TrEMBL record:
Residues 318-329 have a biased composition (Basic and acidic residues). It comes from Calonectris borealis (Cory's shearwater). Residues 295-347 are annotated as: Disordered. Pfam families: TFIID_NTD2 (PF04494), WD40 (PF00400). This is Transcription initiation factor TFIID subunit 5. PANTHER family: TRANSCRIPTION INITIATION FACTOR TFIID, TRANSCRIPTION INITIATION FACTOR TFIID SUBUNIT 5. Belongs to the WD repeat TAF5 family.
Length: 711
């Protein structure tokens, strides 16, 4: 119907979708002047809500609803919304008969208007695809690797388009013929895809929605892109060209095409690579200046339970602790960029202890590897799902699948609760040992069990001052427990689905959580609601980590990307792609410059945060990496995996002589040295215990933990 066409064409013109407008006009054989005339007619003015049009706008609305009814039918009855950026165009909402307006999670304009996009002949899809395949395979080596990146997204979109337009048998034969050509790291996605064989299946399928709504990013050199464009235009292969235009984002760079190795290192995520723009923002990766405070020099005998009567060593005179970082790091954020909690006296005391311990720290390196102390959870038939160890290595916590949280003391000092209120009122508040007196000796035990969650506990984290403990669970809540009373203080309800990980900020007070709802949330212990919601991942957020300066948060996801978020404004400042499976572990280097990530693909990838570049790949593990930790001075990276091994890597060597010039940053021509074997300093097998957690003590002893599995 002519008026409907005119309406849609006008909408496309307003939204600057010129190419779609051209195609539609060609197919409907409408000329430009017709369109102009229609726009000037009063009905046209009323239709588009143009101010001053004397056509009655009710008639216009009736027409709009007709356009949208047609759209709704085309989308299989699902309601959809087109929000337009230009003020003149009314937002179009399709309403199935008998229902109110439903807004579905489908922001993609092309999905809504795809009804008007005459699909190509379904029988020719295989021909189109194999034609392109033949062209790419016969192109020069230098272009072939880059253009091969098109295979996967085109395959998916062509398949979905066939299913969507109910050409089921063609879709099936298309899938069977070409799915074997795709890269091995897309196997999981293809498995999901193969189950989508009818249009009805596409509704509400998450992978589907991601593909419809997020553009797949490919990074291609200008020469390769020109070659492709010429080929498609000569062949008049509009179907493929339309998909490239609508669903792919081609990030074109000037310079040499990249090699197969360079591309393989970076691709593999759910939405292709990151756009180069995504990693351009400035990141303050430096450390905050330690506050300076005076240390009394006669506190040798206080807090001495770790020293157990060892002879006192003469120590250098320390008038002010923290003097080691005298000048401000040029890459550090301003001290007051985000509000951090004030140091309490007990924190200062702890810092003093920390400095003393650090003075006795072992300097690690290839010649001096750490000893490893392994905590095995035996008979953990409740299913160990999370572990954390306090910074001073005095307590260890386990989260279990039977919904309990269990805290152990790993020093001779037992865990005690505070006395009851009645008993506390009898205590002399002025006495020197008041902190000892408030503890109830009758409650002393090595293990405390915390009940409260109603599902498996997937993440645990001690606060830096050891007064609190966080746990997150399948029940959708994060709980804050007091380690003075061993009771639950708060349940934070924000996630509606399982929460996979949580972690306290290195300064306490703030914490982060990430879950199945694909977002990470930043909380403060004294707020019921999250302070920030970090949204952008296309699948579950599986692990979360604070940067040492607490201004940034890293999140790893099942969409196979790692994102770095700015706590101040909630922006995503880095997107790292390269893993071929869901990410399960993250670790920042102590100097804040680098990030190590581990995933189900058994690889550890190293990233330079400042330049936004991958700088290393450590191969050796044969299964998912669940634990990563840098030693206290950052010389050694320890990784623990489901393959029952702990591996130690030379971090100093991995990060020296990095090529981070502007060219590399601009084009992503990264040359990863094949030196995993040179960097591997040691592999340590357990008998049959997957490694779930790693922790370096203040003196650089490595603690590892996991549950013995008998099979």
């Amino acid at each position: 119907d002519r008026q409907t066409l005119v309406a849609v064409l006008q909408f496309l013109r307003r939204s600057n979708l010129r190419e779609s407008e051209e195609i539609l006009r060609r197919e409907a054989r409408l000329l430009g002047d017709d369109l102009g005339a229609a726009a000037l007619s009063p009905a046209g003015a009323g239709l588009l809500g143009v101010p001053g049009g004397d056509g009655d706008s009710a008639g216009g609305e009736a027409l709009l609803s007709r356009v949208t009814a047609a759209t709704a039918i085309a989308i299989g009855g699902s309601a959809a919304t087109v929000a337009s950026s230009s003020p003149g165009v009314a937002a179009v909402a399709a309403v199935p008969p008998g229902k109110g307006i439903v807004v579905e999670d489908q922001p993609d304009v092309s999905a809504v208007l795809s009804a008007y996009n005459q699909q190509g002949d379904p029988t020719l899809y295989e021909e189109y695809y194999s034609g392109l395949k033949h062209f790419i395979e016969c192109s020069l080596d230098c272009h072939r690797a880059e253009l091969s990146q098109l295979f996967y997204p085109l395959f998916v979109h062509m398949y979905l388009e066939l299913v969507y337009n109910q050409h089921e048998s063609e879709a099936k034969s298309f899938f069977e013929r070409f799915h074997g050509d795709q890269e091995c790291y897309y196997q999981d996605d293809l498995r999901v895809l193969s189950s989508l064989t009818k249009k009805e299946h596409m509704k509400g399928n998450e992978t589907m929605l991601d593909f419809r709504t997020s553009k797949f990013v490919l990074r291609i050199s200008r020469d390769s892109y020109q070659l492709l464009k010429r080929h498609l235009q000569e062949k008049q292969n509009n179907q493929i060209w339309n998909i490239v235009q609508e669903h792919l984002y081609i990030d074109i760079f000037d310079g040499m095409p990249r090699s197969k190795q360079q591309i393989d290192a970076m691709v593999g995520s759910l939405a292709g690579e990151a756009k180069r723009e995504a990693n351009k923002a400035k990141v303050f990766f430096g450390l905050l200046k330690e506050p300076e405070f005076d240390v009394p020099l006669d506190d040798e005998d206080e807090e001495g339970e770790n020293e157990e009567g060892k002879p006192k060593k003469k120590k250098p005179k320390k008038d002010s602790v923290g003097s080691k970082s005298k000048k401000q790091d040029p890459n550090a954020p301003p001290q007051n960029r985000i509000p951090l909690p004030e140091l309490k006296d007990s924190d200062k005391l702890d810092k003093v202890m920390n400095m003393k311990e650090a003075a006795r720290r072992v300097r690690l390196g290839p010649e001096c590897l750490p000893s490893i102390c392994f905590y095995t959870f035996l008979n953990a038939y409740q299913g160990l799902t999370a572990v954390d160890i306090t910074d001073d290595s005095s307590m260890i916590v386990g989260g279990f699948a039977d919904s309990t949280v269990r805290v152990w003391s790993v020093t001779p000092k037992k865990l005690r609760s505070v006395k009851t209120a009645a008993d506390l009122s009898l205590i002399d508040k002025e006495s020197d040992d008041v902190l000892e007196r408030i503890m109830d000796e009758k409650t002393a035990s090595e293990l405390k069990i915390l009940y409260g969650h109603s599902g498996p506990v997937y993440g645990t984290s001690f606060s830096p001052d050891r007064n609190y403990l966080l746990s997150c669970s399948e029940d959708g809540t994060v709980r804050l427990w007091s380690l003075q009373t061993f009771t639950c203080l708060v349940g934070y309800k924000g996630h509606n689905y399982p929460v996979w990980d949580t972690q306290f900020s290195p300064y306490g007070y703030y914490f982060v959580s990430g879950g199945h709802d694909r977002v990470a949330r930043l909380w403060a212990t004294d707020h019921y609601q999250p302070l920030r919601i970090f949204a952008g991942h296309l699948a579950d957020v599986t692990c979360t980590r604070f940067h040492p300066n607490s201004n940034y948060i890293a999140t790893g996801s099942a969409d196979r990307t790692i994102r770095l978020w700015d706590v101040l404004n909630g922006n995503c400042v880095r997107i790292f792609t390269g893993h071929k499976g869901p990410i399960h572990s993250l670790a920042f280097s102590p100097n804040g410059r680098f990030l190590a990530t581990g995933a189900t693909d058994g690889r550890v990838l190293l990233w330079d945060i400042g330049h936004g570049l991958m700088v290393g790949e450590l191969k050796g593990h044969t299964d998912t990496i669940y634990a990563l930790r840098f030693s206290r001075d950052g010389e050694i990276l320890a990784s623990g995996s489901m393959d029952n091994t702990v591996r130690l890597w030379d971090a100093v060597k991995a990060f020296e002589d990095l090529e981070t010039d502007d060219f590399t940053t601009a084009t992503g021509h990264i040359n990863l040295p094949e030196n995993s074997q040179d960097l591997l300093l040691g592999t340590y097998m357990t008998k049959s215990t997957p490694v779930v957690h790693l922790h370096f003590t203040r003196r650089n002893l490595l603690l590892a933990a996991g549950a013995y599995s008998s099979q």
